[in-house]
Write a structure and sequence with these properties.
Length: 607
């Protein structure tokens, strides 16, 4: 089992190798922009799907609508650039909303983004799979299996570490950009040189009967779905090489420029070539066929488009774990999401994301197109909240140059609010679930927070508990902090044999080791403390190795080793599992040691 894990995931990395797992701007642009860049494959089509109800003559409206989308994109890019420098440790919309609008609003933004990243994986992988099975119809009946396979592949790549996944996934992203640049360049050259007949499109300004402001706003909102994924870079600042904020800001600008060029190019070509949306063929496919015909270049465009749709899921794999870390640090989700895995990634967040993405794919049988509006509104809610939060921040703090920043964020907040409202007004039948799952998730956040607060209050040191006197020999007490539970375990251990008592603390960093030793010497100067530095963030391995050493020495003197471990007793079963994971693992590893006795000290919590 371990050898299979090593084969798939790779050998564990030391904690001091964290800097090597940070990525440069070129790789970051590929893995963090894949979601945003891939949306140009369907964003322009969403505009045409609304305008086609007025007839093909109304397609010229796609050009001013595209300008509106570019204005929104510019406001978002400039705003998130400001967020990067204002909040250089990441967190994006969740941290901005929480700090400026209050905890409740921050949790609304956080819950929306968590669900949105899960939808990103499910929708992107399913769309990419559809593109593949469209080219090879014989595989259509295996849509679900293929989608699940791609999720598993992406999960393994991300578990191997950010740098490895970036190295593998960067090439298809840049190939997609290259393919579209060639297509747009050749297509516009044909337009300028008169090779595209003018009768294919209606002149700009042609009067259209039945056009209304509501319909144009609906088309604008649909086209704004091309902006999903713009926030990912602000969430993933910790993944950048130093200086992280500067590199993240430059990457964000580069993504905005690429997205603007590709989106404008495809909208323009769709207008000039008179392309209409069809159920069986995408707009991008029709444009490529009109420009190149059915030759190698056409298949190059289609192949890279399928790849980018699948790889767009990687934005979720990058941003979801980092957002989960921020929520876990605030105690709104389990702290296991803050633990780095063997390859220094937040593996619990990666696995959680993969599991629920697969569930969505299976439940919807790989047909997740109906989730796109929900996916888009799940992005624009945090967009609106983060913009509004930044407006309040500038009004409150008024730093140098604050008026210009205020104008940018105010414009962004207003446009994002309009887009969000249009989604609810025009696609309510598809986006209503957001009104259910966001309050439910926020409620769960508070339940978890209440539990952690309750446990934390009971762990604070007050009085020394009385324990029954028993005889013993060498006593080892693993400790995780200075709490009432540790105090209770030490009291029990002292009653066994206070002259041979060793407290053991496993530290993941030298700074953590130093701080704990200082606190311990102030609190328990009479108890010997042994600190074990774990380079691979494992508690069990260094602890059991230390106990082996003590057991060996104790065996030579005919002593026995007693390991005192706390046993948390809570009313709810899942709470017991949550808090006793380490205790269960330690007891399992020590079960077959001849000279070691494991003694548990029950600690009852009030809930």
């Amino acid at each position: 089992m371990i050898s299979l894990k090593r084969l798939l995931i790779g050998r564990p990395l030391k904690s001091n190798a964290l800097g090597e797992q940070r990525i440069n701007k070129k790789k970051a642009l590929a893995i963090l922009s894949s979601d945003a860049l891939s949306s140009v494959a369907y964003g322009p089509e969403q505009i045409l799907l609304v305008l086609v109800t007025l007839g093909t003559a109304a397609y010229w409206y796609s050009l001013p609508i595209a300008v509106g989308v570019l204005v929104l994109l510019t406001a978002l890019i400039l705003s998130y650039r400001q967020i990067i420098f204002a909040y250089p440790h990441g967190g994006g919309a969740y941290v901005v909303s929480k700090n400026n609008l209050g905890t409740n609003v921050g949790l609304v933004a956080g819950s929306s983004l968590l669900v949105d990243y899960i939808l990103t994986v499910a929708v992107s992988v399913s769309a990419g799979t559809d593109a593949i099975t469209s080219a090879f119809p014989g595989l259509h009946s295996y849509n679900i299996l293929i989608s699940v396979f791609f999720v598993i592949v992406l999960t393994i790549l991300n578990l191997r570490g950010v740098t490895e996944s970036a190295s593998v996934l960067a090439y298809p992203v840049y190939l997609f950009v290259l393919a579209l640049f060639i297509m747009i360049g050749v297509g516009l050259f044909n337009v300028v040189t008169g090779k595209v007949p003018e009768q294919l499109h209606s002149p700009i300004g042609t009067p259209i009967q039945g056009v209304t402001l509501f319909l144009l706003l609906r088309a604008f909102a649909s086209g704004s779905s091309a902006l999903t994924g713009v926030e990912a870079i602000s969430n993933a600042i910790p993944n950048f090489k130093e200086p992280a904020p500067n590199n993240a800001a430059k990457t964000l600008i580069a993504m905005g420029v690429l997205l603007a060029i590709l989106f404008t190019g495809i909208v323009s070509l769709a207008y000039f070539y008179g392309v209409s949306p069809r159920e069986d063929v995408t707009v991008v496919s029709q444009i490529a066929e009109e420009i190149f015909g059915r030759n190698g270049m056409y298949y190059f465009v289609q192949g890279t488009t399928a790849l980018i749709l699948i790889l767009a899921a990687n934005t979720g794999y990058t941003a979801f774990p980092l957002l989960a870390v921020n929520l876990a640090k605030d105690k709104f989700i389990p702290r296991m999401f803050t633990i780095r895995g063997d390859r220094l990634g937040y593996s619990n967040g990666i696995l959680f994301l993969a599991f629920f993405s697969i569930i969505l794919i299976i439940v919807f049988e790989g047909k997740t197109e109906s989730l796109i509006p929900l996916y888009a509104v799940g992005v624009f809610i945090p967009f609106t909240l983060s913009q509004t939060g930044m407006v309040l921040k500038w009004l409150r703090e008024k730093p140098e140059g604050w008026k210009g920043k205020l104008i940018i964020n105010t414009l962004g907040a207003i446009i994002c609010l309009i887009v969000t409202m249009m989604f609810f007004l025009t696609k309510f039948s598809q986006v209503w679930p957001v009104l259910i799952f966001v309050p439910v998730i926020v409620y769960l956040f508070y339940k978890i927070k209440k539990h952690y607060d309750s446990v934390g209050e009971q762990l604070r040191i007050t009085d020394l508990a009385e324990v029954e006197e028993i005889s013993g020999n060498v006593i080892v007490v693993p400790v995780a902090g200075i709490t009432r539970v540790v105090n209770n375990s030490l009291a029990y251990a002292k009653s066994l044999n206070p002259d041979k008592l060793i407290a053991v603390y496993v530290a993941f960093s030298r700074e953590d080791e130093r701080r704990f030793e200082e606190k311990w010497n102030e609190w328990q100067p009479d108890v010997r403390l042994v600190t074990l530095h774990s380079q691979y963030r494992s508690i069990i391995q260094p602890l059991t190795k230390f106990i082996d050493t003590v057991e060996h020495k104790a065996g030579e003197s005919d002593y026995r080793v007693t390991v005192v471990i706390p046993q948390f007793v809570l009313r709810k079963g899942w709470h017991n599992i949550l808090h006793n994971q380490s205790s269960l693992l330690i007891r399992t590893f020590l079960l077959y040691k001849r000279n070691v006795i494991v003694s548990t000290v029950p600690y009852h919590f009030k809930e």
